[in-house]
Amino acid sequence: MTDWVSSALAPLHDLTDFDCGVHEFNDWLRGHAVNAIARGTARTYVWTPLGNDRVVAYYSVVPHLVARTELTTSFAGGLGAAVPGYLLAKLALDQTLHGRGLGAELLRDAMKTVVFAADVASGRLLMVDAIDDHAAAFYRKHEFRPTAGNPLRLVVKIATLRKALGLQVHAATGL
């Protein structure tokens, strides 16, 4: 358990000092996350210290279709040309939190969000496009598997996430 509050990005959150060390991720949070929420193209969730609105970590989730040709038969599950799911579009910790093992905890938070979304809106997979080999190795430790022909594009079944998180089966479907 951490000393962080996880919540949906809101106007009250202070993004000014966030620095994960990756310019693209810092800029996206400050310049595009709010617009993505307004347009309905991504949802961003942030961590803030207890009693403070300064963002120290974030992740963004996007509904996504994965081309069946990118997947093994097991991941595609006999579905059509595209398999529904979610894309973990961003996942970043402020540099002040690096080296403390919190990346796995932030990923776990994101995975819970996706499982809950799948309970409401369905979806079979969670996909991520790792920014480099180091990031891909991080995701592989958490049961993500590379897609066909791209070692930086990784995928995991929602059912696998549910089991790994110890979450109950969705009450409405019994699945």
UniProtKB/TrEMBL annotation:
Transmembrane intervals:
none
* Swiss-Prot/TrEMBL keywords: Acyltransferase, Toxin-antitoxin system, Transferase
Query: GO molecular-function annotation terms?
Result: acyltransferase activity
The reply on keyword Glycosyltransferase is no
InterPro entries with a match to the protein in the record: Acyl_CoA_acyltransferase
What PANTHER family has UniProt attached to this entry? ACETYLTRANSFERASE, ACETYLTRANSFERASE-RELATED
Name listed for the protein in its UniProt record = GNAT superfamily N-acetyltransferase
